[in-house]
Specification:
The structure is a single chain. The protein has a seven-stranded parallel beta sheet, sandwiched between helices. Helix 1 crosses helix 8, helix 3 runs parallel beside helix 4 and helix 4 packs parallel to helix 6. The chain has eight helices and seven strands, in the order E-H-E-H-E-H-E-H-E-H-H-E-H-H-E. It is an alpha/beta fold. It is about 45% helix and about 15% strand.
Length: about 260
């Protein structure tokens, strides 16, 4: 690997890393020598991810810290545990998210608030608490937020999720200006359909059934998103600030656009 793409020696906190993109990213970072903090609301699941990393020959180490990103105190405890164990926070990956499919008229106020709380307020908590720690370190860092194509294009059956993710895109742009003077780069990833357990359960889609022989893929893999996370966390992306990178293969075009 070219040196500028490496995350060796960095410490990364990855929310929502009990499975899917978060877990794959944690393992990818540890493969490259980064220390990782895996976190979600279920201690048992993140213990399994951390054990897999620590019981392997990966050069990076892992700890598992239970955290509910909706709870400010919980996020502060997460960052404190990270600093106590590894001494710093170099990269904060705000990956935790949730959604459910429903028409707009069928979304209750509680359902709306729950999805916005996890996806938007959770990102706010993670970015602000980690950003404050990075400023104290005076060594800079990177914050990587997760949006979705639902936040850039809209989503008929996930309007609550799309609205929250659209706000994450805007928040990323605002944060990049706020933190630039502190050598903290803030960027965002907006994936399309990715073959995770969540997509499989909500939409009944299995990535194994998707033809991946063509560039116009209908579904991505968690590993492909983890590649982008590592790029944004590395020095290779040093000239990228406040951007949202969309990863959805080749989007379908209407006949009028052909």
């Amino acid at each position: 690997m070219l040196e500028q793409f490496s995350v060796d020696g960095k410490t990364a906190v990855i929310t929502g890393s009990s499975q899917g993109i978060g877990a794959v990213t944690a393992k990818r970072f540890a493969d490259d020598g980064a220390n990782v903090v895996v976190t979600s609301r279920t201690q048992e699941k993140i213990d399994e991810v951390a054990a897999e990393i620590n019981d392997s020959d990966r050069p990076g180490e892992a700890i598992a810290v239970e955290c509910d990103v909706r709870d400010r105190d919980s996020v502060e405890a997460l960052i404190e545990a990270t600093v106590e164990e590894f001494g710093a926070v170099d990269c904060m990956v705000n990956n935790a998210g949730a959604s459910f499919m429903a028409g707009f008229d069928d979304i209750s106020e509680n359902g709306w608030k729950t999805i916005v709380d996890i996806n938007l307020h959770g990102t706010f908590h993670g970015a602000q608490v980690a950003g404050q720690q990075m400023q104290q370190q005076e060594s800079g860092g990177t914050i990587i937020n997760f949006a979705s194509v639902a936040g850039t294009m809209g989503s008929q059956y996930m309007s609550h999720y799309g609205a929250a993710k659209a706000a994450v895109v805007n928040l990323t742009t605002s944060l990049s200006a706020n933190y630039a003077d502190h050598d903290i780069r803030v960027n965002c990833i907006a994936p399309g359909l990715v073959g995770t357990a969540g997509v499989a359960s909500q939409m009944g889609l299995d990535p194994a059934d998707v033809d991946r022989s063509d560039i116009a893929k209908e579904m991505g893999l968690p590993e492909e998103i983890a590649d982008i996370v590592q790029f944004l966390a590395s020095d290779a992306s040093s000239y990228i600030v406040g951007e949202t990178i969309t990863a959805q293969g080749v989007p379908p075009l209407e006949d009028s656009q052909l």
